[in-house]
Amino acid sequence: MRPVLILLTLLLPLGAGAEEIIGGHEVKPHSHPYMAFVKSVDIEGNRRYCGGFLVQDDFVLTAAHCRNSSLHRSMTVTLGAHNIKAKEETQQIIPVAKAIPHPDYNDTDLSNDIMLLKLENKAKKTKAVRPLKLPRPNARVRPGDVCSVAGWGKTSINTTEGSALLEEAELIIQEDQKCKRCFHHYTETTEICVGDSQKIKTPFKGDSGGPLVCDNKAYGVLSHVKYKKISLGVFTKVVHFLPWISKNMELL
Ligand SMILES: *[C@@H]1O[C@H](CO)[C@@H](O)[C@H](O)[C@H]1NC(C)=O
Ligand SMILES: *[C@@H]1O[C@H](CO)[C@@H](O)[C@H](O)[C@H]1NC(C)=O
Question: Number of structural domains, the chain?
Protein backbone atom coordinates (compact mmCIF):
# COMPACT_ATOMS: atom_id res chain seq x y z
CA MET A 1 0.00 0.00 0.00
CA ARG A 2 2.65 2.46 1.02
CA PRO A 3 4.70 2.53 -2.23
CA VAL A 4 1.49 3.07 -4.22
CA LEU A 5 0.56 6.10 -2.14
CA ILE A 6 3.99 7.60 -2.52
CA LEU A 7 3.82 7.08 -6.25
CA LEU A 8 0.41 8.75 -6.43
CA THR A 9 1.54 11.81 -4.52
CA LEU A 10 4.45 12.12 -6.89
CA LEU A 11 2.39 11.74 -10.03
CA LEU A 12 -0.63 13.87 -9.19
CA PRO A 13 0.99 17.31 -9.08
CA LEU A 14 2.75 16.61 -12.37
CA GLY A 15 -0.49 15.64 -14.10
CA ALA A 16 -2.38 18.58 -12.67
CA GLY A 17 0.19 21.15 -13.69
CA ALA A 18 0.74 19.90 -17.20
CA GLU A 19 -2.08 21.83 -18.89
CA GLU A 20 -0.92 25.12 -17.47
CA ILE A 21 2.52 24.81 -19.00
CA ILE A 22 1.10 24.53 -22.52
CA GLY A 23 0.73 27.96 -24.11
CA GLY A 24 2.44 29.79 -21.29
CA HIS A 25 1.82 30.24 -17.62
CA GLU A 26 3.11 32.40 -14.81
CA VAL A 27 6.18 30.89 -13.19
CA LYS A 28 6.74 30.41 -9.47
CA PRO A 29 8.42 33.67 -8.38
CA HIS A 30 12.23 33.53 -8.69
CA SER A 31 12.29 29.98 -10.04
CA HIS A 32 14.21 31.38 -13.07
CA PRO A 33 16.90 33.39 -11.25
CA TYR A 34 18.98 33.84 -14.41
CA MET A 35 16.28 35.86 -16.21
CA ALA A 36 17.19 39.42 -17.13
CA PHE A 37 14.95 42.23 -18.33
CA VAL A 38 16.90 44.37 -20.78
CA LYS A 39 15.92 48.00 -21.38
CA SER A 40 17.50 49.84 -24.25
CA VAL A 41 17.12 53.58 -24.82
CA ASP A 42 18.11 55.35 -28.04
CA ILE A 43 19.24 58.97 -28.44
CA GLU A 44 15.66 60.05 -29.19
CA GLY A 45 14.47 58.53 -25.92
CA ASN A 46 12.70 55.57 -27.54
CA ARG A 47 12.76 52.46 -25.41
CA ARG A 48 12.85 48.86 -26.41
CA TYR A 49 12.59 45.88 -24.13
CA CYS A 50 14.09 42.43 -24.41
CA GLY A 51 14.74 39.37 -22.37
CA GLY A 52 18.20 38.08 -21.60
CA PHE A 53 19.92 35.86 -19.11
CA LEU A 54 22.81 36.02 -16.68
CA VAL A 55 25.70 33.75 -17.74
CA GLN A 56 28.33 35.05 -15.31
CA ASP A 57 28.02 37.52 -12.41
CA ASP A 58 28.95 40.41 -14.72
CA PHE A 59 27.66 39.20 -18.12
CA VAL A 60 24.19 38.91 -19.65
CA LEU A 61 23.51 37.21 -22.96
CA THR A 62 20.74 38.55 -25.22
CA ALA A 63 19.92 39.09 -28.91
CA ALA A 64 21.90 41.59 -31.00
CA HIS A 65 18.70 43.12 -32.39
CA CYS A 66 17.88 44.37 -28.88
CA ARG A 67 20.28 47.26 -29.39
CA ASN A 68 19.53 50.00 -31.91
CA SER A 69 22.88 50.20 -33.61
CA SER A 70 22.72 53.68 -35.09
CA LEU A 71 20.81 55.53 -32.41
CA HIS A 72 21.92 53.63 -29.35
CA ARG A 73 22.28 55.55 -26.08
CA SER A 74 22.17 53.35 -23.00
CA MET A 75 21.05 50.00 -21.62
CA THR A 76 20.14 48.68 -18.21
CA VAL A 77 19.50 45.16 -17.00
CA THR A 78 17.07 44.18 -14.24
CA LEU A 79 17.86 40.92 -12.45
CA GLY A 80 15.89 39.14 -9.76
CA ALA A 81 12.49 40.37 -10.96
CA HIS A 82 9.19 38.55 -10.95
CA ASN A 83 6.81 41.48 -11.43
CA ILE A 84 8.77 43.78 -13.72
CA LYS A 85 6.36 46.68 -13.14
CA ALA A 86 6.83 46.61 -9.37
CA LYS A 87 9.76 47.63 -7.20
CA GLU A 88 10.74 44.30 -5.65
CA GLU A 89 13.41 43.91 -2.97
CA THR A 90 14.97 41.08 -4.95
CA GLN A 91 15.59 43.29 -8.00
CA GLN A 92 19.06 44.42 -8.98
CA ILE A 93 19.08 47.11 -11.66
CA ILE A 94 22.53 47.35 -13.22
CA PRO A 95 23.64 49.64 -16.08
CA VAL A 96 25.38 48.02 -19.03
CA ALA A 97 29.02 49.11 -19.26
CA LYS A 98 29.55 47.67 -22.74
CA ALA A 99 27.27 46.03 -25.30
CA ILE A 100 29.10 43.57 -27.54
CA PRO A 101 26.90 42.53 -30.48
CA HIS A 102 28.36 39.71 -32.59
CA PRO A 103 30.55 41.35 -35.27
CA ASP A 104 28.74 39.41 -38.02
CA TYR A 105 25.24 40.30 -36.85
CA ASN A 106 23.15 41.20 -39.89
CA ASP A 107 20.00 43.19 -39.17
CA THR A 108 18.47 42.28 -42.55
CA ASP A 109 18.40 38.51 -42.17
CA LEU A 110 19.01 38.50 -38.39
CA SER A 111 21.93 36.10 -38.69
CA ASN A 112 24.34 35.86 -35.74
CA ASP A 113 21.71 37.54 -33.57
CA ILE A 114 23.58 37.35 -30.28
CA MET A 115 25.03 39.97 -27.94
CA LEU A 116 26.96 40.00 -24.68
CA LEU A 117 26.30 42.73 -22.15
CA LYS A 118 29.11 43.51 -19.76
CA LEU A 119 27.54 44.87 -16.57
CA GLU A 120 28.91 47.97 -14.86
CA ASN A 121 29.17 46.03 -11.60
CA LYS A 122 28.85 42.40 -10.65
CA ALA A 123 25.43 41.05 -9.80
CA LYS A 124 25.08 39.89 -6.23
CA LYS A 125 24.22 36.19 -6.20
CA THR A 126 21.03 35.64 -4.20
CA LYS A 127 18.20 33.14 -4.32
CA ALA A 128 16.61 35.40 -6.94
CA VAL A 129 19.78 36.05 -9.00
CA ARG A 130 21.99 33.28 -10.31
CA PRO A 131 23.62 32.54 -13.69
CA LEU A 132 22.35 29.93 -16.14
CA LYS A 133 24.82 27.30 -17.33
CA LEU A 134 25.86 27.17 -20.96
CA PRO A 135 25.88 23.78 -22.74
CA ARG A 136 29.07 21.84 -23.46
CA PRO A 137 30.60 22.37 -26.94
CA ASN A 138 29.42 18.96 -28.18
CA ALA A 139 25.90 19.20 -26.71
CA ARG A 140 22.99 18.97 -29.17
CA VAL A 141 19.21 19.22 -29.07
CA ARG A 142 17.16 17.04 -31.39
CA PRO A 143 13.70 17.37 -32.98
CA GLY A 144 11.11 16.36 -30.41
CA ASP A 145 13.14 17.51 -27.41
CA VAL A 146 11.09 19.53 -24.95
CA CYS A 147 12.52 22.85 -23.82
CA SER A 148 11.12 26.09 -22.48
CA VAL A 149 11.35 29.83 -22.84
CA ALA A 150 10.47 32.49 -20.30
CA GLY A 151 9.86 36.19 -20.50
CA TRP A 152 7.65 39.13 -19.71
CA GLY A 153 5.73 38.73 -22.94
CA LYS A 154 7.08 41.61 -24.98
CA THR A 155 7.53 39.60 -28.14
CA SER A 156 7.44 42.66 -30.34
CA ILE A 157 10.46 44.85 -29.72
CA ASN A 158 8.58 48.13 -29.92
CA THR A 159 5.66 47.39 -27.67
CA THR A 160 5.50 48.26 -24.02
CA GLU A 161 2.51 45.96 -23.57
CA GLY A 162 3.08 42.58 -22.05
CA SER A 163 2.82 40.61 -18.91
CA ALA A 164 4.06 42.23 -15.71
CA LEU A 165 4.76 38.78 -14.31
CA LEU A 166 7.36 36.36 -15.63
CA GLU A 167 5.76 33.66 -17.78
CA GLU A 168 7.04 30.48 -19.28
CA ALA A 169 6.01 28.32 -22.23
CA GLU A 170 6.95 24.81 -23.24
CA LEU A 171 8.56 24.48 -26.68
CA ILE A 172 9.45 21.55 -28.91
CA ILE A 173 12.59 21.38 -31.07
CA GLN A 174 11.56 21.09 -34.76
CA GLU A 175 13.22 19.73 -37.89
CA ASP A 176 15.42 22.37 -39.57
CA GLN A 177 13.41 21.88 -42.79
CA LYS A 178 10.38 23.43 -41.12
CA CYS A 179 12.19 26.71 -40.48
CA LYS A 180 13.90 26.64 -43.90
CA ARG A 181 10.47 26.67 -45.54
CA CYS A 182 9.26 29.44 -43.27
CA PHE A 183 12.30 31.74 -42.93
CA HIS A 184 14.32 32.43 -46.09
CA HIS A 185 17.64 32.87 -44.31
CA TYR A 186 17.39 30.08 -41.74
CA THR A 187 20.83 28.51 -41.19
CA GLU A 188 21.01 25.26 -39.25
CA THR A 189 24.66 25.62 -38.20
CA THR A 190 23.94 28.82 -36.27
CA GLU A 191 20.22 28.57 -35.51
CA ILE A 192 17.72 26.24 -33.79
CA CYS A 193 14.17 25.72 -35.08
CA VAL A 194 11.57 25.61 -32.31
CA GLY A 195 7.78 25.30 -32.21
CA ASP A 196 5.19 25.70 -29.50
CA SER A 197 3.76 22.59 -27.93
CA GLN A 198 0.20 23.41 -28.97
CA LYS A 199 -0.84 22.93 -32.57
CA ILE A 200 -2.46 26.37 -32.61
CA LYS A 201 -1.22 29.89 -33.15
CA THR A 202 -0.30 30.94 -29.65
CA PRO A 203 2.28 33.65 -29.34
CA PHE A 204 5.56 32.80 -27.69
CA LYS A 205 5.43 34.07 -24.15
CA GLY A 206 9.12 34.85 -24.15
CA ASP A 207 10.73 38.11 -25.06
CA SER A 208 13.30 38.12 -27.79
CA GLY A 209 16.72 37.71 -26.26
CA GLY A 210 15.36 35.17 -23.78
CA PRO A 211 16.94 31.76 -23.31
CA LEU A 212 15.88 28.43 -24.79
CA VAL A 213 16.33 26.26 -21.73
CA CYS A 214 16.77 22.53 -22.19
CA ASP A 215 18.07 20.33 -19.41
CA ASN A 216 18.68 23.46 -17.25
CA LYS A 217 21.12 24.94 -19.76
CA ALA A 218 20.90 27.79 -22.27
CA TYR A 219 20.84 26.26 -25.75
CA GLY A 220 19.43 29.25 -27.59
CA VAL A 221 18.71 32.98 -27.64
CA LEU A 222 15.27 33.93 -29.01
CA SER A 223 15.80 35.82 -32.27
CA HIS A 224 12.58 35.92 -34.27
CA VAL A 225 9.17 34.25 -34.54
CA LYS A 226 6.50 33.58 -37.17
CA TYR A 227 2.93 32.48 -36.59
CA LYS A 228 1.85 29.83 -39.09
CA LYS A 229 -0.10 26.62 -38.39
CA ILE A 230 2.03 26.41 -35.30
CA SER A 231 4.21 29.20 -33.96
CA LEU A 232 7.76 28.79 -35.21
CA GLY A 233 10.69 30.47 -33.59
CA VAL A 234 14.33 30.82 -34.53
CA PHE A 235 16.81 30.75 -31.68
CA THR A 236 20.49 31.62 -32.11
CA LYS A 237 22.42 28.40 -31.42
CA VAL A 238 24.51 29.08 -28.31
CA VAL A 239 26.80 26.04 -28.83
CA HIS A 240 28.01 27.49 -32.14
CA PHE A 241 28.95 30.77 -30.44
CA LEU A 242 30.66 29.33 -27.35
CA PRO A 243 34.19 30.27 -28.53
CA TRP A 244 33.06 33.85 -29.24
CA ILE A 245 31.29 34.05 -25.85
CA SER A 246 34.23 32.79 -23.79
CA LYS A 247 36.77 34.87 -25.71
CA ASN A 248 34.84 38.08 -25.03
CA MET A 249 34.14 37.26 -21.40
CA GLU A 250 37.84 36.67 -20.80
CA LEU A 251 38.91 39.85 -22.58
CA LEU A 252 36.75 42.22 -20.52
C1 LIG B 1 16.24 52.70 -34.25
O2 LIG B 1 15.16 53.29 -33.57
C3 LIG B 1 14.42 54.19 -34.37
C4 LIG B 1 13.40 54.81 -33.48
O5 LIG B 1 12.79 53.87 -32.67
C6 LIG B 1 13.78 53.44 -35.51
O7 LIG B 1 13.05 54.34 -36.33
C8 LIG B 1 14.88 52.78 -36.30
O9 LIG B 1 14.30 51.98 -37.29
C10 LIG B 1 15.73 51.92 -35.40
N11 LIG B 1 16.84 51.42 -36.14
C12 LIG B 1 17.21 50.17 -36.11
C13 LIG B 1 18.40 49.82 -36.92
O14 LIG B 1 16.61 49.33 -35.46
C1 LIG C 1 22.83 40.81 -44.77
O2 LIG C 1 21.88 39.88 -45.22
C3 LIG C 1 21.33 40.17 -46.50
C4 LIG C 1 20.24 39.13 -46.76
O5 LIG C 1 20.74 37.82 -46.61
C6 LIG C 1 22.42 40.17 -47.55
O7 LIG C 1 21.88 40.50 -48.80
C8 LIG C 1 23.49 41.17 -47.15
O9 LIG C 1 24.58 41.08 -48.04
C10 LIG C 1 24.00 40.89 -45.74
N11 LIG C 1 24.90 41.95 -45.33
C12 LIG C 1 26.16 41.73 -44.99
C13 LIG C 1 26.94 42.90 -44.57
O14 LIG C 1 26.65 40.60 -44.97
Answer: 2
Residue nearest to atom 12 of ligand 2 (CA): 106
Domain identity same for 199 and 119: no
pTM: 0.85
Q: Are residues 22 and 47 in the same domain?
A: no
Residue 39 lies in a domain: yes
Q: Quick one: 42 and 118 in the same domain?
A: yes
Lowest-confidence range among 111-125, 170-184, 235-249? 170-184
Atom of ligand 1 nearest to the CA of 71: 1
| pLDDT tier, 145 (very low <50, low <70, confident <90, very high otherwise) | very high
Q: For atom 4 of ligand 2, which residue has the closest CA?
A: 109
CATH number at residue 164: 2.40.10.10
The helix/strand/coil state of 26 is strand
Q: Which residues are catalytic?
A: 65, 113, 208
Q: What is the pLDDT of residues 204-219, one digit of tens each?
A: 655 789 999 999 999 9
- Candidates 120, 2, 86, 96; CA nearest to 41 is 96
The parent domain of residue 139 ranges over 10-28+132-239
Q: What is the mean pLDDT of residues 116-126?
A: 97
Cα–Cα dist 30/25, whole Å: 14
- pLDDT above 90 as % of the chain: 61
Residue (of 105, 45, 93, 38) closest to 72 by Cα position:
45
